Amino acid sequence: MCGIIGIVTKRREGQTAEIAVECLDRLSYRGYDSVGVATLGDNLEVVKMKGKVEDFSHKFDVNSIRGKVILGHTRWATHGPPTDYNAHPHTDCSNSIAVVHNGTIENFRELKAELEMLGHKFKSQTDTEIIPHLIEEFKRRGMDSFSAFKATVNAIEGTYAILAVIRGDNRIYFAKKYNPLVIGIGEDTNYISSDIPSFLPYTKTIVVISDDEVGYLTADSPLNGGVYIEHKGEKIEVNDRIKIINWDAESASKEGYRHFMEKEIMESPRSVKETISGLLADIDEVMKAVKILKDSRRILIVGAGTSYHAGLLFSILLQREGINAIPVIASEYYNYRTSTDDSILAISQSGETLDVRLAIGKFKAEGSKIISLTNVIYSEISRQSDVSLYTSAGPEIGVAATKTFTSQVASLLLLWSAIKDEDFSYLRNAHIVVEDSLSLSGKASAFGEELAKQSNAYFLGRGLSLPLAMEAALKVKEIAYIHSEAYPAGESKHGPIALVTQGFPVIFINGEEDLGLQDNVQEMKARGSKTYSISINKSLNTDREILIKVNDKRLFPLAIAPLIQILAYRSAVIKGTDPDKPRNLAKTVTVR
Ligand code: M6R
């Protein structure tokens, strides 16, 4: 995964490192095993360490790091454990070239062996370190810097977003294959990063880099040649690519909340409102998607983690209409064979998840039409799709998907109604359901506080409540480190109930009345379980209960989603874990 940033400026040298570290902080959801910066002034200097961005700011006097060209990196370890040495940026033998990289180089062992034969000395166990040495090697053979960089990119195989600085010029060289890279155009400073929110406080003018492109960036405006891009040797007209985005900078800051996760849950009503109005404003695109879905023999709904749960919910809605909808866990895509009669709905907040990309790559090659629902404009997955739909949740920084999940569910309800030819104006009130539900967040927090004392929990649901129960269990597991499992409530009797002893917490998610959950509550109570429920409109008579009133039952998942998130968030806070940066995780998973 990893987050990379490059900044090249005409401003005073002193501020740039500070800005780079601030950008890295906003990128650290992509990985937080280690952090480092390289600055190019008269000399090339590298400062790096194992740990998070805040540790870096405490350890080093960032203001004293000077240079007008800066690279930064925050790492999610793949090759080599998180250590100071394995932290990026990596350099060549003569300390003239520094590189940061997001991705994996598959042929690095062969290249490393060749470079070692030629006398290159390596300091880390990473795949990335071969890049500065290859550039150095090509330069030794007489190439200029850009040619040496391009020759290096041609030599490596794998996935990458690479930034390099080379002593002798004030450029940031870049290359991209599979991993995201976007340029931000500022006044006297240009940025290049893994994502837009990292530089959002400084500019909203962007240029998205596509696969197999290489180029370089200076501090000049693109009109004066500040951005140069090539695709397979052909120069790209950069000015045609410039876009202005409408995200606001505040959405990438905590604004007084203790954690991004809490802030983002609280933003859910606005995210849902903007998502629905965004889709209604783009109704032609929505109807294109609807036509494809309706004309299909089968619909495969592909996603990972939280996005899979949104897709599972959608598949149940469609199956109940007699539509052949198949929920697919993205990483298991190879089990499915599609054809020109099928369509694919790919759901991904980031629009980057590699498993989803691999899945749609295969299904597209088999002739299926691809529709995507992502939260990031011009994301990799959107660009791979025949029809791209968006949630308008704004940037989500916390690793746990919260407002984006609620917005995905709202979008899918709209698609479901459109598929049924049903009037979907009821969705204009969807955000009110979320808002009303958040007024009960104190009760969900109280559940979370009790759960924080436990080591295990079950979340049970039936029908459309099952994906919500699964999402609740995932949230509690990933941020509060409590072992929690979700089951269809009826299935709990076929094994899971064996673990239930006195006080074992079982949380029922009860969105649809009369599916039989009452019986399951009694079965659990009879075995001493402490029962909880989050119910819509009708009590389940559990030991503790949150009862939510929802007038339009179609909208009930939007009432439950924020409360399960609050419950998990509060458990994490009580346990003292960092809900924004849970251990071993990264928000965007671009490895298999
Ligand atoms: O960006 P995506 O929606 O494709 O991400 C998929 C999962 O990695 C993601 O939903 C993950 O499960 C969340 N961090 C859970 O909160």
From TrEMBL:
Swiss-Prot/TrEMBL catalytic activity: D-fructose 6-phosphate + L-glutamine = D-glucosamine 6-phosphate + L-glutamate
Alphabetized GO MF terms: carbohydrate derivative binding; glutamine-fructose-6-phosphate transaminase (isomerizing) activity
GO biological process: fructose 6-phosphate metabolic process; protein N-linked glycosylation; UDP-N-acetylglucosamine metabolic process
UniProt entry tagged with the keyword Transferase: yes
Enzyme nomenclature, EC number: 2.6.1.16
Domain Glutamine amidotransferase type-2: 2-220
Superkingdom per UniProt: Archaea
Keyword terms of this UniProt record: Aminotransferase, Glutamine amidotransferase, Repeat, Transferase
CDD domains: GFAT (cd00714), SIS_GlmS_GlmD_1 (cd05008), SIS_GlmS_GlmD_2 (cd05009)
SIS domain sequence ranges: 289-425, 447-582
Enzyme class: transferase
Pfam families reported in the protein's UniProt record: GATase_6, SIS
Entry-linked InterPro entries: GATase_2_dom, GFAT, GFAT_N, GlmS/AgaS_SIS, GlmS/FrlB_SIS, Ntn_hydrolases_N, SIS_dom, SIS_dom_sf
Keyword Lyase: no
Function (record text): Catalyzes the first step in hexosamine metabolism, converting fructose-6P into glucosamine-6P using glutamine as a nitrogen source.
Name of the protein described by the UniProt record: Glutamine--fructose-6-phosphate aminotransferase [isomerizing]
Source organism: Candidatus Acidianus copahuensis
Organism placement in taxonomy: Archaea, Thermoproteota, Thermoprotei, Sulfolobales, Sulfolobaceae
